[in-house]
Amino acid sequence: MSTELQATQLAIRMERWIVEARGGSRTALERLLEACFPYLLAVAKRELCAALRPRLDPVDVVQDTLLKAWQNFTQFRGETETDLLAWLRQILRNNLANERREHIQSGVRSIQREVRLVKIVALLLLGDHGNESESPDGRTLAQYEALGLALRRLPERYRQVLHLHTQEEMTFAQVGERLHCSAEAARKLWKRAAEKLAQLLKDVRES
User: Is residue 37 over pLDDT 50?
Assistant: First the structure.
């Protein structure tokens, strides 16, 4: 049997399934949506942007699309295979658009968290640990004593990366060279160190 003939027969069956699904047949709806899976998977693989590929499996995108189609089939107004595929394709694209927006917003939140960490550490770290008589920005001696205690509880490598990036204002590439690691590894190390310092300072103040 030729591919063209198979496609024609499937289209005819799908039109029948559409009618039956509208009449309340769950079996027909299941067959109808299952038949669309290969097409939607091809669309998902083609349209899934590079930024989303590490976090989204095209199969999951299609399954979510088919779930929404199942839940909202009463909104479908078409009669043919072409109509149905166009409707499903739009649902899939809407899902991908929502995922892209969430990805961008997550990235913004991540940047905002990192900026807050920069500010926290920049405000907390002493420019000169040996000079406790000075109180930059009006901070009290008690605050700096708490900071000093928190810093002493940090692992040496954490203190190093905080000093190099936050106090000496080295780039992560420069920090990585100093610590013999990649720039990305230095960035992650600094983030962990900043979070640990913030937690230790909180513990010191509450003790």
Answer: yes
